[in-house]
Amino acid sequence: MTTSPPHHATSAPTGDGQRAGHPAIEFAGVRKDYLSHGEAVPAVKSLDLAIGQGEFFSLLGPSGCGKTTTMRMIAGFEEPTAGKVFLDGQDVTGVAPNKRDVNMVFQSYALFPHLNVLQNVAFGLERKKVAKSEIRRRVGEILEIVSLTGMEKRQPKEMSGGQQQRVALARALVNHPRALLLDEPLGALDLKLRQQMQVELKRIQREVGITFVYVTHDQGEALTMSDRIAVMNGGLIEQLGSPRAIYERPASRFVAGFIGTSNLIDGQVSWVENGLGVIDLGSGERVLMPLPASVAAGRAIEVSVRPEKIDLHRSAPHAPGLSVVSGTVSEVVYHGTSTNYTVATTAGSDFVVFDQNAHDAEDVASRGERVFLTWAPQHSYPIGV
Ligand SMILES: Nc1ncnc2c1ncn2[C@@H]1O[C@H](COP(=O)(O)OP(=O)(O)OP(=O)(O)O)[C@@H](O)[C@H]1O
């Protein structure tokens, strides 16, 4: 029996015309419990999610939050305890992995060591008895996309980690799957190569136009490549949105802390007027921020502000219209492009400030120095309002 997914609408980009109209992947009311020593262990508690055609979608979260389980349910290696999974609008719950037309790439490349690049990439097509000329054409095309043209005769052991990962990618993409699932594929590479491959992966995904679902616990990686990110925590999606939305407007304390560095400060709403709120920090200082009129005066509020939005001053600034918080520098760390300060604020919490090294060295504040931090109202963001 074929069941229709509950909704087809998605704000995500659409690619392949034939498949347009349905999300590439959809979870409807999915729950997944594992049985461990006779007890049900919830891995995914409740999942309703639509991933668009041609979207680069990341599942991001700490170890054990349910990312891999979610991905394995797309591939068919795990079945939901409740709910349904749809691919291109077709109910695939209970359908065997090899009948789903999705491929996976792992951190371990799992290449055939005795086969060369050409044979590794052509392997699946040959098993499907695709015509030799068609195999040659498709393999040539995909090797060009992953920048391995000219390396057809090499064996995996004669290649670098990054090159081997490209072979694995080519092999997974050559048969044009409905979706490619990538489970921490760059985890084995060193930092520099990993960053290069992030840019490459995004380019490759754009060129092939296939839906990518990427599992990672590395927030930088997810921010760099994704069209949208689902931040998972304890078997639930805590926030779903574009990298910018997730970074600039974290919906919870967990997301604010997990994605990049966040400064959090407690205060009380003094008043809200014309969409601008004034927050009393209890130290004689205040934060200005956009707030809806529905937020009542007297309400306790937690404010988040990112370290790169803050200006650090060595003398009291004249800053009408800005938030101003003073404190004492407790740590100064030079990072080449920026100097990172930790400031123990008068209002109680420690603030981290990233100061671009665009000015002279003598302008650097030192440990123990009293400083003033300012930032614009739009860079304060209320948590949970
Ligand atoms: N086969 C299994 N049997 C029992 N429990 C499992 C099984 N696989 C995963 N779990 C549990 O389910 C939860 C989610 O695991 P999952 O592997 O999906 O998390 P993850 O976010 O991918 O973590 P990681 O980043 O460490 O891979 C964890 O609590 C885990 O211990």
Automatic annotation (TrEMBL):
<dbReference type="GO" id="GO:0015594">
    <property type="term" value="F:ABC-type putrescine transporter activity"/>
</dbReference>
<comment type="similarity">
    <text>Belongs to the ABC transporter superfamily. Spermidine/putrescine importer (TC 3.A.1.11.1) family.</text>
</comment>
<dbReference type="GO" id="GO:0016887">
    <property type="term" value="F:ATP hydrolysis activity"/>
</dbReference>
<dbReference type="GO" id="GO:0043190">
    <property type="term" value="C:ATP-binding cassette (ABC) transporter complex"/>
</dbReference>
<feature type="region of interest" description="Disordered">
    <location>
        <begin position="1"/>
        <end position="21"/>
    </location>
</feature>
<dbReference type="InterPro" id="IPR017879">
    <property type="entry name" value="PotA_ATP-bd"/>
</dbReference>
<dbReference type="InterPro" id="IPR005893">
    <property type="entry name" value="PotA-like"/>
</dbReference>
<dbReference type="InterPro" id="IPR017871">
    <property type="entry name" value="ABC_transporter-like_CS"/>
</dbReference>
<dbReference type="Pfam" id="PF00005">
    <property type="entry name" value="ABC_tran"/>
</dbReference>
<keyword id="KW-0813">Transport</keyword>
<dbReference type="InterPro" id="IPR003593">
    <property type="entry name" value="AAA+_ATPase"/>
</dbReference>
<dbReference type="InterPro" id="IPR008995">
    <property type="entry name" value="Mo/tungstate-bd_C_term_dom"/>
</dbReference>
<dbReference type="InterPro" id="IPR050093">
    <property type="entry name" value="ABC_SmlMolc_Importer"/>
</dbReference>
<keyword id="KW-1003">Cell membrane</keyword>
<dbReference type="InterPro" id="IPR027417">
    <property type="entry name" value="P-loop_NTPase"/>
</dbReference>
<dbReference type="InterPro" id="IPR013611">
    <property type="entry name" value="Transp-assoc_OB_typ2"/>
</dbReference>
<dbReference type="Pfam" id="PF08402">
    <property type="entry name" value="TOBE_2"/>
</dbReference>
<dbReference type="GO" id="GO:0005524">
    <property type="term" value="F:ATP binding"/>
</dbReference>
<dbReference type="InterPro" id="IPR003439">
    <property type="entry name" value="ABC_transporter-like_ATP-bd"/>
</dbReference>
<keyword id="KW-0472">Membrane</keyword>
<keyword id="KW-0067">ATP-binding</keyword>
<keyword id="KW-0547">Nucleotide-binding</keyword>
<comment type="subunit">
    <text>The complex is composed of two ATP-binding proteins (PotA), two transmembrane proteins (PotB and PotC) and a solute-binding protein (PotD).</text>
</comment>
<protein>
    <recommendedName>
        <fullName>Spermidine/putrescine import ATP-binding protein PotA</fullName>
        <ecNumber>7.6.2.11</ecNumber>
    </recommendedName>
</protein>
<keyword id="KW-1278">Translocase</keyword>
<comment type="function">
    <text>Part of the ABC transporter complex PotABCD involved in spermidine/putrescine import. Responsible for energy coupling to the transport system.</text>
</comment>
<feature type="domain" description="ABC transporter">
    <location>
        <begin position="25"/>
        <end position="259"/>
    </location>
</feature>
